[in-house]
Amino acid sequence: MTRSRWPAVGREPSPRRRSVLLVCSFLLPLVLWSLVSYVPWIWHPLIHVTDPGTVSWFKADLLVERAVFATENAQAVAAGGRAAVGERANPVFLPAPHAVARALWTAFTTKPVLRDELWLHQSLWLSIQTIFWGFLISSLFGVPLGILCGAYPPLARLFEPVIDFVRYMPAPAFGALTVAVLDIYAAPKIAIIVIGTFFQQVLVIANTVRRHDPALIEAAQTLGARPRQLLLHVIVPGCLVDIYNDQRILLGWAWTYLIVAEVVGVSTGITFFINQQAKYRNFDNVYAAILIIGVIGLVTDQGLAFIGRRIFPWQPRAPSRLNAVLALLGRKGGGPA
Amino acid sequence: MSAPAVTTELADYRRQSPAVAERFQKLRERPVVLEVRDLTRTFATRQGGETVALRSLNFCAHRREFMCLIGPSGCGKSTLIRLLAGLDEPTSGQVLLDGQPVSGPCPDRGMVFQGYTLFPWRTVLGNVMFGLEMGGMESGRAKSEALQWLDLVNLTKFKDAYPAQLSGGMKQRVAIARALATNPRILLMDEPFGALDAQTRAQMQSYLLQIWRNVDVTIVFITHDLDEAIYLADRILVLKAHPGEVQELIEVPVPRPRGPAQFATPEFLATRRRIDELIHPPLESAGEKLPIVRLTVVGDDVE
Ligand SMILES: Nc1ncnc2c1ncn2[C@@H]1O[C@H](COP(=O)(O)OP(=O)(O)O)[C@@H](O)[C@H]1O
Ligand SMILES: [Mg+2]
Question: Which ipTM did the prediction report?
Fold first, then answer.
């Protein structure tokens, strides 16, 4: 076998290399972020003032542009005063990794500023509930309709054109309408998620069902399956794994709609938290909250993948990210060389 | 001169030993299970014309007969077997099973496809139980019947495995058990061993003969492999292409029980030569030269 340095098209790397690549996948952006944050000459366009000197409008902790800092200092010195002192810094919207890491902890432990504001974990819980109900209601109707459209072409011809049409209307456009109909609390937010998910869901699942192997249907027919039995005993079980994986992707889309849904009516949940923290210019908290959403998404998705492998024992095992991590940890923990 | 007499004797595939002739006599006396009358199937082409896949086919198969269908690729073998299974509708003509016209697929005509078509989400046992469950059999009974069929194809050990975990030969054995479990009158097989390697294929052929001997079923078996057809069949229906028509119905003079040792017997070779003539007419492929320019250095010859 010839070995080339360039990765071969379509060939999976070895398990060990998979684990390393997985870690690198997260490590690379982190390294980049650290470089920009900790190595002053890469970017750091501002000066963080520690001692204002005699410059009248400088104060400790002020961030000024480097050019302004230089001219103000030159003027101060020329006027016989004392130059201000400071160090190079990044803008406030790019906190350093350690600040965000600290915020990940403090965001949960800091008391809300106003009395009627919620703790971070309460906001998160609200958001998760909104997603849950929105996605559940959408799936309750979208999955069966998608399966029926995929299985019966006449139904597809009846429903899919109008669904295709509505799909192009952005869900947030229905915001005002949902508030008018459903009041300002949780219901309109759930409705936005339903509107954003449902129409895509029907089309995605119908397409998945249409990719079903027709030879299996013919085989079932020669074994005596009647039309109704075909749907329940051949088409649905045959598509189950693909539908499950579609649902994982669709759940990701639902999170995207959450951020617009939560500003409809009374702003709540994680979006309210993020907006509020941005208003106070606590950008480390903003990043912490965004990261937490990412972590929740990743954990849910990998959890669902893990469950999927348990409930669909017939499908060939795809390399799992969770297993890759475990493998790496296992090897470090004194596994066989 | 005795030598030429021997060769002409060997060459005649129609010559049957008394035992074989008696077998065919008995076979013809058995009731007709499958009858094909004037079967024609045409397909509309994309250019708006028509291709005649099958034209005016007539033949019948008797109870517990093993019939092979052979013919060049594209002669309509798959089209024919799909019509027999009821998966496709004839343009004209009829298929009769036990004298009743066939309409639509039904478990009295079992089918085994080249691509296995096992249900990947069901275990081996679940696959064999499928037809029984669809027929409304209570699951405990379906299970014990399915287990008997698995025993017949010698796969009891693998009853809880999923199809993805089996080899090609094992998959096809499950497919055969699954098709037989509903007690079909006739088993239709469309190049079932076409995707298997030579060794597995030979093994599957002998399995199939054993099953056929022990089960009350008529088999219609499609293949494009001459040896396979002669090894398995009582009679071989040779089709020709464009349009698909019956060329000849050959009674295989090789005595039963069959074994691999018979591949070199005179009857076998004579039959083989006849079918070869029928499906590979001497005009074609007789050393037709391809218009290729020499692309190698002079002297760098491979033959
Ligand atoms: N669904 C179809 N539509 C149009 N033409 C078809 C269709 N199925 C088969 N044919 C044509 O019928 C002929 C016989 O095909 P087939 O039965 O698959 O041949 P075989 O199985 O003997 O190789 C071919 O010429 C093929 O092009
Ligand atoms: Mg074919």
Answer: 0.88
A residues 304-323 lying closer than 8 A (beta carbon) to B: 312-316
**Chain A residues inside the 8 Å CB shell of B188:** 222
* Dist CA B60 CA A223 (whole Å): 23
| Location of structure tokens 């074989």 | B20
Q: How far does the centroid of ligand 1 lie from the alpha carbon of residue B53, in Å? A: 6
A236 touching B (Cβ < 8 Å)? no
Nearest to B117 among A215, A240, A315 (CB): A215
Catalogue all structural domains in chain B, each as residue range(s) with its CATH number.
Answer: 3-108+184-288 (3.40.50.300), 119-181 (no CATH)
Q: What is the rounded CA–CA span in Å between residue B58 and residue B35? A: 8
Per the CB < 8 Å rule, is A222 touching B105?
A: yes
- Beta-carbon contacts of residue A114 (< 8 Å; ≥ 6 apart): none
The average confidence (pLDDT) of chain B is 90
Domains in chain A with CATH codes: 28-95 (no CATH), 107-316 (1.10.3720.10)
B130:A314 CB<8 A: no
Segment A224-267, tens digit of pLDDT: 999 899 999 999 999 999 999 999 999 999 998 998 899 888 88
Instruction: Check whether the bond before B120 is cis (ω within 30° of 0).
Output: no
Q: How many CB pairs under 8 A join A and B?
A: 74
